[in-house]
Design goal:
It is a single chain. By secondary structure, the protein is an alpha/beta fold. It has helices spanning 13-28, 35-38, 73-91, 108-117, 149-159, 174-204, 240-246, 249-271; strands at 51-56, 95-98, 122-127, 137-142, 209-217, 229-233. It has a single domain (13-32, 48-271), classed as Zn-dependent exopeptidases (Aminopeptidase, 3-Layer(aba) Sandwich). The longest helix has 31 residues, at 174-204. The chain starts with 12 loop residues before the first helix and ends in an 8-residue tail after the last helix.
Amino acid sequence: MSDGFDAKGPLGPVMERRRLLGLALLFAAGAPLPAAAQQPAAGRGRAPLPLVVIDPGHGGRDPGAIGRAGTQEKRIALAVALNLKARLEQARRCRVLLTRSSDVFVPLGRRIEIARQRQATLFLSLHADSAPGARGASVYTLSETASDSLAEALARRENRADAAGGLRLPSVSPEVQRILLSLMQHETRTGSERLARLTVAALGQQVPLLPNTHRRARFVVLTAPDVPAALVEMGFLSHPQDEAALNRAAHRARLATALAEAVHGYLGMRAAGLGAAEG
């Protein structure tokens, strides 16, 4: 499947509980409920397919990392995102939304809001960063403490894309926030860990991997408390071999194939009631 790149089902019990907790946060903050939530259950009809939000990193005035040959991270991320979107839509197992579908700047906070407002089932952020000596794909999930110095450095770099970005929680009492968020965050982080494991396994069948492939750090774009999320570094533009590979349509197609497999695996487990059963 060519990406045209130019380098220069019904809710399960876990998802229903997460939806209700999200509505409780909105209610506590005095915000209007989504229109769908105000309709009687009998009048909603068949539940829509789960929504997958794909987030091509950077964009517009923020090029992200730039390789030695001039390859821009924002262009690689968008090319793979569009390829992945086409594959997922062709399979008709989910709806797909991109946080950006062209070369525009989207603040980090807005990327999070897009997923939360649409009650996304999962959020996948795509990147191709720069780090001395690093090569291969890797996957990151949210943690207050970085798993290693590389993860910490990457999080600092990505978070600088929008100094004002981040999660804006409703204005409710600290006690209410603590109770509701702790319930959601436990389920969300468990789902994120499962998504990361599936993504690592799928990528490993298609492309070279960075050692210790699944890492953790506090990436701002992963901080939504109610949407399982992972950030994928598809390779490092600072490495000549990775940069050359990411400029090849065939390599980007392999990345999209692996990511689609991971998404379908997650959706399958979710449909079977297993999406956040571990912990």
